[in-house]
């Protein structure tokens, strides 16, 4: 066993989690190594200091401290006044915002896009689009599938220019 292996064992010894074999190996190394003996002594001293220091810390009563702090924060004459009622305006603002969001959600979910047919070439389905939506419902659309790349191309024409050259 070397000093590098001993350090974690010394920490485990302090926590009381060493097996009997580990404890025997540690005792043998510490007996032969003055540096590890010094580290063990420093670790024991630091642990005892922390335990005694922690035992001497006075923990205040949280309830008493909270009551004193609240008493300091209250203005004179405030103890006799009833608590303020909450205003209704924030509830109305939040409710109107929620209603607007619900209305927009309804509008977007209720729109039905125009279905786009499946493009079939040589009795094999080459491309399929669930839907294509043009800006105007009266626009005429054309679908083209490029055989080499397999790309689905959709054209939509403006209904005003559909009859023009």
List the helices and strands and how they pair.
Blueprint: H1 3-15, H2 20-32, H3 34-55, H4 62-73, H5 89-110, E1 119-121, E2 124-127, E3 140-145, E4 152-157
Antiparallel strand pairs: 1-2, 3-4
Question: Could you walk me through the main structural features you see in this protein, from its secondary elements to its overall organization?
Answer:
- By secondary structure, the protein is mainly α.
- The protein has helices at 3-15, 20-32, 34-55, 62-73, 89-110; strands spanning 119-121, 124-127, 140-145, 152-157.
- 2% of the residues are buried.
- Strand 3 (140-145) and strand 4 form a beta hairpin.
- Strands 1-2 form a two-stranded antiparallel ribbon.
- The chain has two domains: 1-76; 109-165, no CATH class.
- Helix 1 (3-15) runs parallel beside helix 3 (34-55) and helix 2 (20-32) packs across helix 3 (34-55).
- The protein contains five helices and four strands.
- The model has no long low-confidence stretch (mean pLDDT 76).
């Amino acid at each position: 066993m070397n000093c590098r292996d001993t350090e974690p064992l010394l920490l485990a010894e302090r926590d009381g989690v060493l097996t009997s074999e580990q404890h025997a190996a540690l005792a043998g190394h510490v007996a032969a190594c003055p540096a590890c003996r010094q580290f063990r002594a420093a670790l024991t001293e630091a642990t005892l200091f922390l335990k005694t220091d922690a035992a001497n810390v006075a923990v205040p009563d949280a309830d008493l401290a909270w009551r004193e702090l609240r008493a300091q924060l209250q203005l004179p004459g405030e103890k006799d006044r009833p608590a303020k009622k909450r205003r209704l305006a924030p509830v109305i603002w939040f409710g109107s915002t929620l209603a607007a969001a619900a209305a927009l959600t309804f509008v977007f979910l209720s729109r039905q896009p125009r279905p786009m047919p499946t493009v079939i070439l040589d009795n094999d389905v080459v491309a399929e689009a669930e839907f294509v939506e043009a800006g105007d419902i009266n626009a005429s659309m054309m679908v083209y599938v490029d055989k080499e790349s397999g790309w689905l191309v959709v054209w939509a024409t403006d209904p005003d220019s559909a009859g023009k050259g």
